[in-house]
Amino acid sequence: MANKINSLIFVWGIIGLWTQVGCGESNDKYDNYTLFRIYPTEESQFEIIKLLQTSNNSIEVLKKSRGYNDSTDVLVPPDRLQSFEELAKENNFNYDLKNQYGRSFESPERAPRRRVLRGFNIYEYHSFAAIQEYIETMASKHPELIKLQTLGSSYQGRKMKLVKISQNPHAGNPIIFVDAGIHAREWVAPAMALYLIHRLVMDPEARKRELRGVDWYVLPVVNPDGYEFTRSSKTNRLWRKTRSKSPVSNCYGVDGNRNYGYQWAVSGVSKNPCDMETYAGHKPFSEPETQMVRDVMLSNADRIKLYVSLHAYGQYLVYPWGYTAEFLPKQWRKLDSLARKVSQAVQSAGGQPFKVMSAGQWYPAAGGSDDFAFGAAHVPYSYTMELTDGYEFVFPESRLRSTLPQLYEGFRAFASEIRNEFSNKRLRDHAS
């Protein structure tokens, strides 16, 4: 083991701090990088991966192994590829490679699209401004179903609006609250949130099923500043955090999903403001974006019965607790059962099944929105849904048309459960 760890430390030394954004990289920074996947098959290899993940930004880890034969995905620059491959061989890792990884990145159009001529395509990735325009247009065309609530402004001043969808907003129905895009690079998550809005409003069947006795609150992009930063260039495409300026350093951003004030910073976080992945902030709810989500939860705590935070990637559906793997909430069987129903619904529609478990069993990380919803706002069902597998953070736009409808079937399963458990008896009888 000592030799293995020493060899790893050697590799860290030669790789250097190449993940920091804004250090003069060219716009094609990632074009010739290799996505390197290593698969642990024995216990000793997890110790190496653990050090790899806490190497003070020496490498760019996109995904962590959650068990045997589940990959750790690392981006490696061309001048370090041989050294990293030697590391994998020396430590008996199974591995595979995807060369020229950055060339698969989407190239967002910087100029406004001609939406007036061809309309808004729900199966495309859009700018935050276009997303806002879309939800405003939908609200103006369908005032009988949609109300918008301005929650506030992001750190850089972008207005954030909550989409409220209801057939009868005065009925006191149970609420399903869905948010997306707290991690900037996970573009498929806001795309799914928009598709959810589209189907709930435009599909006549939704009025008979998903909207019957259930209200929906959707916040399509929780981190608009980070999202727009990822759209600005390939160099920034894999940015994860918010874009707030650290009060104690010259670095930017906080991992919004480590910033919630429930068991804050007790596990799985970084206290280094320059950490590119898991910096939890200098205090709970330091970010205006997480404050707004918190306020939605607390102001509607008596009615929100399901919270789902959309992320990518890996096709996981996980529930509390996220801050620990040592124990589960007493209601874990209900959480697990509903997650498996959702997974089955997606699979029956032709999609990939979800891997279902507690978030802490996946990997302990404190300060997540799902733990806050469940532990502080007392939402009965709370989940993080990691969408898609096989394409990392650059899920192809061309696949949205086939994938989003499959995932929507999972939300139908969610709605059925919430209606049956929490809507009044008259509505349940009518819906059946």
TrEMBL record:
<keyword id="KW-0479">Metal-binding</keyword>
<feature type="signal peptide">
    <location>
        <begin position="1"/>
        <end position="24"/>
    </location>
</feature>
<keyword id="KW-0732">Signal</keyword>
<protein>
    <submittedName>
        <fullName>Carboxypeptidase B-like</fullName>
    </submittedName>
</protein>
<dbReference type="Pfam" id="PF02244">
    <property type="entry name" value="Propep_M14"/>
</dbReference>
<dbReference type="InterPro" id="IPR003146">
    <property type="entry name" value="M14A_act_pep"/>
</dbReference>
<comment type="similarity">
    <text>Belongs to the peptidase M14 family.</text>
</comment>
<keyword id="KW-0862">Zinc</keyword>
<feature type="active site" description="Proton donor/acceptor">
    <location>
        <position position="386"/>
    </location>
</feature>
<keyword id="KW-0121">Carboxypeptidase</keyword>
<dbReference type="GO" id="GO:0004181">
    <property type="term" value="F:metallocarboxypeptidase activity"/>
</dbReference>
<keyword id="KW-0378">Hydrolase</keyword>
<dbReference type="InterPro" id="IPR057246">
    <property type="entry name" value="CARBOXYPEPT_ZN_1"/>
</dbReference>
<dbReference type="Pfam" id="PF00246">
    <property type="entry name" value="Peptidase_M14"/>
</dbReference>
<dbReference type="InterPro" id="IPR000834">
    <property type="entry name" value="Peptidase_M14"/>
</dbReference>
<dbReference type="GO" id="GO:0008270">
    <property type="term" value="F:zinc ion binding"/>
</dbReference>
<dbReference type="GO" id="GO:0006508">
    <property type="term" value="P:proteolysis"/>
</dbReference>
<dbReference type="GO" id="GO:0005615">
    <property type="term" value="C:extracellular space"/>
</dbReference>
<keyword id="KW-0482">Metalloprotease</keyword>
<feature type="domain" description="Peptidase M14">
    <location>
        <begin position="124"/>
        <end position="418"/>
    </location>
</feature>
<keyword id="KW-1015">Disulfide bond</keyword>
<dbReference type="InterPro" id="IPR036990">
    <property type="entry name" value="M14A-like_propep"/>
</dbReference>
<keyword id="KW-0645">Protease</keyword>
